[in-house]
Amino acid sequence: MKNILLIGATGRTGSIFLEMALDKGHQVSILLRDKKKVTLTHPKLRIIEGNPTKSSDVSEAMKGSDAVESTLNISRVTDSPWAQLTAPPDLLSASMTVVLQCMKEQGISRIIYVSASGVGDSSVEMPGWLRWFFNRTKIGITYRDHQKTEDLLASSGVDWTSVRPVGLTDKDKVRELIVSRLGTPKPRWSISRKHVAIFMLDILEKAEYIRQAPTISER
Predict the structure, then answer these.
(1) pLDDT of residue 4
(2) Pairing mode, if any, of strands 177-180 and 215-218?
(3) In 10 A of CB 28, how many CB atoms?
């Protein structure tokens, strides 16, 4: 069993991952700005109140961890691509800068980060019209910060995986997984958040996709 620090536990993917990891017997520490946002209680759950961009808070939350999982995202008022941000536009890269420094200080080497299909060299998987659309909406802000974060991971020297899901759904049913690299095999359009959480936990337990950035979708 692993001792995991989860950042982004109150998000839709993070909350699924949290329950899944606890159900499988892992010890999970979560860092939250407000403890009241999580009502879940579990003997293997440790809740730390703090800011993911503050070194002292991240360091405290990371103590005793074997690995870090981040589902942190730049939230908006609504799911509309034009909705105003409710988080700083550099939240992801600012948090990752701190997380990587704390990992180095505590001798932790494994981190799994949820990015997005279309970031970095996976832009070849994205239709031109969709790139155009993202670049002209608030989604583009998140994509640019995902890119900065992936660059930090790539130069960090740690055992990172950047998971790049396609369009996320809240469906409970898990379909056949497609793992793509640079458009091969061709990814489909969607994947459930539940399947993303399953993939994140699976590759941690099996030590797979180290220093890789797979795109994941469902058939």
Answers:
(1) 98
(2) antiparallel
(3) 23
C-alpha 71/C-alpha 8 separation (Å) is 5
Q: Is the peptide bond before 43 cis (omega within 30 degrees of 0)?
A: no
Cα dihedral 140, 141, 142, 143, rounded to 10, equals 50
Average pLDDT of every residue of the chain: 95
Residue 44 structure tokens: 């293997």
| Cβ atoms 170, 149 nearer than 8 A | no
* 8-state DSSP, 79: S
DSSP secondary structure string for all residues of 134-187: HHTSTHHHHHHHHHHHHHHHHTT-SEEEEEEE-EEE--S----EEEEBTTBSPP
177-197: per-residue pLDDT in tens? 999 998 999 999 999 999 999
d(CA 35, CA 49): 6
174 token code pair: 């898990």
DSSP 36-70: GG-----TTEEEEES-TT-HHHHHHHHTT-SEEEE
Q: What Rg do the C-alpha atoms of the chain give, in angstroms?
A: 16
- Residue 130 clears pLDDT 90, i.e. is over it: no
Say whether 123 sits in a helix, a strand or coil.
helix
* Distance linking the first and last C-alpha atoms of the chain: 30
How far apart CA 219 and CA 200 sit, in angstroms, is: 18
User: Which pLDDT score, from 0 to 100, does residue 127 have?
Assistant: 82
SS3 content of the chain, % helix, strand, coil (to 5): 40, 25, 40
What's the DSSP call for residue 84? P
